[in-house]
Amino acid sequence: ETLVEHLSHHATLTCSGSADDTCFAGKMKVEGFLVYYIISWHESVESALDVFVLCMTKGKCVDAYITKEGSRYAERISDVVIYSAMTTTQEIITNAAKGIRKRHLWQIFGDDYSPPLAMGANLMGCITELRTFSYQLDLLLVNPRLKTLLY
Question: Which of 29, 41, 54, 70 could cross-link 36 (Cys pair, CB 3.0–4.6 Å)?
Answer without folding.
Answer: 54
